[in-house]
C-alpha cells in the first residue's frame, strides 16, 4: 500500500462520528459549561449581595470591591492574611519534608543493595493504597499524648517521615532510569554513597522532584480533613479552615465576601496550573496521580 | 581497597541503606504499621480518650451492623455516590478524550479547560460555591428561571436530591481520568487502525474492536483509582451540609460519619471499627477488580 493510501485509510478510520464543526461546537459548549461556575463565582465576588441572588450572569452590573476588604478582615479577629501565611508555611514545609524524605528512600530503593530490600519495597508499595482513615485514630491518640494537638506537627512530621509512599515509588522509578555508569564515574572521582546521591542522582532527578513538590503543595493546600482534625485555635487556621469558619459564622449572610476569599484561596493552585501545566499533565498521564 | 571488595558482596550497603531509609522506616513502623495494629485493638474496645480503653470484643462491629441506622444510612449514601459518579465520570472522560485526540486546533486550550475543574474541585472554595449553586435561590434555579421554570426546590436542602449535587461535583472533575485516557489512546499503535481500515471496519467497529480492547488496562486502572478515591470523599459533603451530613442524613458520607463518631462524640473505638470496615471494603473491591480483570482486561503480548 502506498503511503498516500495508507494515510487516507488511516484518516478514514480515525474520522469522527460527526463533522469537524460539530466537534468544535461540542467542545466549546462543554468547556463553557465546565468553566461557567468558576466564572460566576469570580463575578459574584465583585457583586453586591442582592445581585448574587438575582442574576445568573457572570459580569456584575454594580462593582462591589468592598467584598474583598470585608472578606480579608476575616473571622474571630483573625484576618485572611494570617490564614494565607499559615497555609503557605504548612504547604511549604510539607513540600520540603516530602522531597527530602522521599528522595532519600527512593535513592536507597533505586541504587543500594541491602538485606530485606525486596520485603521493604513490597511493604512500601502496599501502603500506597492504604486509606488514611485506617491509621487516623491511633495517630490522633499518639499525637494527643505528645500534646501535639493544635500544632502543625501532626500535619508535618508524617511528611518528613516519608508516609506519602507514592512519591517514593515515583522517585525510585525515575532514578532507576538514570544510567549507573554515572555513579561509577562519580565513585572513581571519589564520591561515596552520600556523594553520589547528592551530586549525581539528586540533580538528575529534578523532574521527579518537581512533580513531587507540585502535587505535595496542591494536596496540602487543599487538605481539609487532617487540618480540621488537628487544628482548633483560629490563629493557627489555614485558608481552608478559615473559609469554613467564615461560612459558618457570616457566610450565609455575606456571600460576596465569602466568594472573594474563596476566589483568592484558588489563586495559588491556579498559578501553579498556569506555570507548570505540562509537568502536571505529564505527572498524571505517566503515573496516574490524582490531579 | 576493602571498599571495592565489599562492593561485590551481596549486601554491600546495609549501613548506608539504614541511614537513607531511616525517615521512611520510622514513618512506616511508627505512623503506619503500629497505628494500624493499634486501630485493630481499639476497634475491640470502648475508648473516649480520657479513661483507659475498655475491652468489649466484637461489640462495636455488632453495633454497627445491627443497631446503628445512621451507619447503614452512611453506607447507602456512599454506595450511591460511588456507583453513580464513577461510571458517569469515566464515560465522560473517555468521550472527551476521544474528541480531543482528533488533533483539532487549540487542543491544549480545551484540555486545560476540562482539566482545571478536577484540579480545583476538591477544595473548600468549590464546595462553598456548590452550596450556593444548588440553593433555592442559587445559580441553577436562577438560570432555569430565565427559561421560565419557577418554583424549583433547593437542591442541597432536599433529601431526595442533595447527594446528586455532590455526584454532579464529582462528575465535573472528570479531567484527570481524561488525561490518563488521552495518554492511553496515544499509545495505541497506528498500524492497528490501518489494518482495521483495510479489513473494512467501520468507525463503530473500530472503536469497539480496536480502541476499547487496547484501552482496557487504562480503564481498569482508572476504575480502581476512582472507586477508592470516591469512597474516601469528605470535603464536599462536610462543607455542603455544614458538617451534619444533612438534610436528614442524605449526605452522610462514610468518612463524614467516621469523623463525627471520632471527633465530635469521641467514640474512638467505634470510629476505629468503622475505619477497619472501610479498609476491608477497599481491599475487597480492589481484590475483586483484580480477579475480574482477567476476563476483560487485555494485556498486549510482547510479540
In short:
The complex is a heterodimer of chains A (291) and B (303). With 291 residues, chain A is mainly alpha-helical.
Structural notes for this entry:
Chain A has 291 residues and is mostly helical. Helix content of chain A is 74%, strand content 0%. Chain A is built from 15 helices and no strands. Chain A has helices at 3-14, 20-44, 49-54, 66-72, 80-111, 117-128, 133-145, 153-160, 165-176, 181-188, 193-204, 206-222, 225-230, 239-249, 255-287. In chain A, helix 4 packs across helix 15, helix 6 crosses helix 9 and helix 12 runs antiparallel to helix 15 (255-287). With 303 residues, chain B is mainly alpha-helical. In chain B, 71% of the residues lie in helices and 1% in strands. Chain B is built from 14 helices and two strands; from the N terminus they run ααββαααααααααααα. In chain B, strands 1-2 form a two-stranded antiparallel sheet. Chain B starts with a helix and ends in a 7-residue tail after the last helix. Chains A and B meet through helix 1, helix 2, helix 3, helix 5 and helix 6 of A and helix 2, helix 4, helix 5, helix 6 and helix 7 of B.
Amino acid at each position: 500500500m502506498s503511503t498516500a493510501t495508507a494515510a487516507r485509510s488511516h484518516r478514514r478510520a480515525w474520522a469522527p462520528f460527526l463533522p469537524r464543526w460539530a466537534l468544535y461546537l461540542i467542545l466549546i459548549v462543554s468547556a463553557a459549561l465546565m468553566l461557567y461556575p468558576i466564572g460566576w463565582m469570580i463575578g459574584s465576588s465583585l457583586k453586591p449581595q442582592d445581585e448574587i441572588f438575582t442574576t445568573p450572569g457572570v459580569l456584575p452590573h454594580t462593582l462591589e470591591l468592598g467584598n474583598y476588604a470585608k472578606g480579608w478582615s476575616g473571622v474571630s479577629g483573625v484576618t485572611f492574611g494570617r490564614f494565607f501565611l499559615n497555609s503557605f508555611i504548612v504547604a511549604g514545609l510539607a513540600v520540603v519534608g516530602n522531597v527530602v524524605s522521599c528522595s532519600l528512600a527512593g535513592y536507597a530503593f533505586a541504587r543500594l543493595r541491602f538485606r530485606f530490600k525486596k520485603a521493604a519495597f513490597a511493604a512500601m508499595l502496599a501502603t500506597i493504597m492504604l486509606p488514611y482513615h485506617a491509621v487516623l485514630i491511633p495517630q490522633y491518640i499518639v499525637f494527643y499524648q505528645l500534646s501535639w494537638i493544635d500544632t502543625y506537627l501532626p500535619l508535618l512530621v508524617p511528611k518528613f517521615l516519608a508516609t506519602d509512599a507514592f512519591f517514593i515509588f515515583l522517585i525510585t522509578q525515575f532514578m532507576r532510569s538514570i544510567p549507573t555508569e554515572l555513579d561509577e564515574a562519580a565513585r572513581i572521582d571519589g564520591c561515596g554513597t552520600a556523594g553520589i546521591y547528592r551530586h549525581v542522582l539528586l540533580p538528575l532527578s529534578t523532574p521527579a522532584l518537581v512533580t513531587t513538590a507540585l502535587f505535595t503543595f496542591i494536596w496540602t493546600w487543599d487538605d481539609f480533613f487532617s487540618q480540621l482534625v488537628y487544628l482548633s485555635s483560629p490563629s493557627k487556621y489555614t485558608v481552608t479552615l478559615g473559609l469554613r469558619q467564615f461560612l459558618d459564622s457570616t457566610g450565609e449572610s455575606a456571600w460576596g465576601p465569602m466568594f472573594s476569599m474563596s476566589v483568592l484561596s484558588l489563586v495559588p493552585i491556579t498559578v501553579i496550573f498556569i506555570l507548570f501545566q505540562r509537568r502536571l499533565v505529564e505527572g498524571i498521564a505517566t503515573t496516574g496521580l490524582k490531579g | 581497597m576493602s571498599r571495592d571488595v565489599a562492593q561485590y558482596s551481596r549486601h554491600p550497603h546495609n549501613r548506608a541503606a539504614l541511614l537513607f531509609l531511616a525517615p521512611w522506616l520510622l514513618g512506616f513502623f511508627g505512623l503506619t504499621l503500629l497505628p494500624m495494629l493499634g486501630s485493630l485493638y481499639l476497634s475491640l474496645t470502648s475508648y473516649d480518650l480520657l479513661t483507659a480503653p475498655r475491652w468489649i470484643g466484637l461489640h462495636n462491629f455488632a453495633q454497627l451492623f445491627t443497631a446503628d441506622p445512621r451507619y447503614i444510612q452512611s453506607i447507602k449514601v456512599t454506595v450511591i455516590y460511588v456507583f453513580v459518579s464513577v461510571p458517569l465520570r469515566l464515560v465522560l472522560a473517555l468521550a472527551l478524550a476521544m474528541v480531543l485526540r482528533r488533533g483539532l486546533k487549540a487542543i491544549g486550550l480545551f484540555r486545560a479547560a476540562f482539566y482545571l475543574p478536577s484540579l480545583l474541585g476538591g477544595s473548600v472554595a468549590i464546595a462553598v460555591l456548590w452550596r450556593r449553586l444548588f440553593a433555592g435561590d442559587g445559580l441553577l434555579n436562577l438560570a432555569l428561571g430565565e427559561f421560565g421554570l419557577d418554583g424549583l426546590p433547593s437542591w442541597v436542602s432536599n433529601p431526595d436530591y442533595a447527594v446528586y449535587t455532590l455526584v454532579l461535583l464529582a462528575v465535573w472533575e472528570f479531567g484527570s481520568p481524561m488525561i490518563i485516557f488521552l495518554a492511553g489512546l496515544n499509545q495505541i499503535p497506528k498500524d492497528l487502525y490501518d489494518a482495521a481500515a483495510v479489513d473494512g471496519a467501520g468507525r463503530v467497529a473500530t472503536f469497539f474492536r480496536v480502541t476499547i480492547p487496547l484501552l482496557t488496562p487504562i480503564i481498569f486502572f482508572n476504575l480502581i483509582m476512582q472507586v477508592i478515591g470516591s469512597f474516601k470523599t469528605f470535603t464536599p459533603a462536610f462543607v455542603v451540609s455544614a458538617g451534619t451530613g444533612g438534610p436528614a442524613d442524605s449526605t452522610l458520607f462514610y468518612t463524614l460519619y467516621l469523623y463525627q463518631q471520632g471527633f465530635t462524640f469521641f467514640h474512638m473505638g467505634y470510629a476505629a471499627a468503622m475505619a477497619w470496615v472501610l479498609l476491608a471494603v477497599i481491599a475487597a473491591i480492589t481484590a475483586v477488580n483484580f480477579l475480574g480483570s482477567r476476563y476483560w482486561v487485555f494485556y498486549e503480548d510482547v510479540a
